[in-house]
Amino acid sequence: TTAKPPRIIRQLPAHLVNQIAAGEVIERPASVVKELLENSIDAGSTRIELSLEGGGVELIRISDDGCGMTAEQLPLAVTSHATSKLPDDESLFHVGTLGFRGEALASIASVSQMTIRSRAEGEEGGCQIDIRGGVIETPGPCGCPVGTVIEVRNLFFNTPVRRKFLKTPQTERGHIVEAFTRLALANPKVHFVLRNGDKEMFDLLPTPRWADRIESFFGTEISEGLIPIENQDETVQITGYACDPSVSRGNNRMQYLFLNGRHIRDRALQHALGEAYRGMLMVGRHPVCFLRMRMPADMIDVNVHPAKLEVRFTDSGRVYSRLLQTLRQRFLSTDMTQRVGSNP
Ligand code: ADP
Ligand code: MG
């Protein structure tokens, strides 16, 4: 009996599309930090400095010495689905960078007040752009060294519901430190600095020794119990460290797995770790590991999760058993009380 008039379908304006997209990847300040750090790493930076105010809600500032952007490219950086990382359509199937979706900057810019200053090599000077809630203000020239500085202020200022879900600055800062830790662990040759207010939390000098970077985060308790792992077959390479069972944790958060330079969480691989240590740990204890895996990009799909935390393997059974075997063999040939703190 009630009338059913046809609905009006409307094409959403870009800033709204970006806000919706932001809902998928930008959950909290730590997600901003992850995306910005990844961009700086993809830009080939050797030094990356991160500063926070108010747990990152008031301000996240990141500066790098990477390749920078030219004045004409800069507005494209904050346009959605615009990326320099897929030079042709085929490259989606062998992604070699941390980013490729071309959405992060547009998403972040749509829910914050963002300023980017950047200068590419060979350019006379730098360029600047200000974006407020996704609206670009006229770009202009500015003085700056080669590289990029991005400031993100007042995250979620225009999405009050999302802002309400934020926890205390200390909690948000904790999530940021975790995101920072993952990326700094994955890139020991990059110099990272993290500043919170006027306090310097980390100054991590570049190092060729992964154990050094691990030690600067977790101290000698962990670094002295590291058992080097190295194994390679035709397709899968596994290197890094498993920790002596005398160091364990009540949860599995100290299991750092990196796949082709990207930090991942993977249920099956965590299970493999648990199996490898079976009988060596008390019930309820979890091993501590830092493992880097490499395999051909066409054996993994990173495009299943917007934040790329989860990946899909074309042959997950094989990856599982490789990891399990590698650790088991190592443990068999190791006096588990041996300490290897000074191994490369
Ligand atoms: P994606 O990383 O998926 O390409 P983003 O939205 O994160 O998408 O970034 C868009 C583009 O902006 C990148 O492809 C890159 O060309 C450029 N860009 C972003 N951050 C930096 C940076 N720190 N240095 C140089 N270029 C950058
Ligand atoms: Mg990116």
Automatic annotation (TrEMBL):
<comment type="similarity">
    <text>Belongs to the DNA mismatch repair MutL/HexB family.</text>
</comment>
<comment type="function">
    <text>This protein is involved in the repair of mismatches in DNA. It is required for dam-dependent methyl-directed DNA mismatch repair. May act as a 'molecular matchmaker', a protein that promotes the formation of a stable complex between two or more DNA-binding proteins in an ATP-dependent manner without itself being part of a final effector complex.</text>
</comment>
<protein>
    <recommendedName>
        <fullName>DNA mismatch repair protein MutL</fullName>
    </recommendedName>
</protein>
<feature type="domain" description="DNA mismatch repair protein S5">
    <location>
        <begin position="214"/>
        <end position="332"/>
    </location>
</feature>
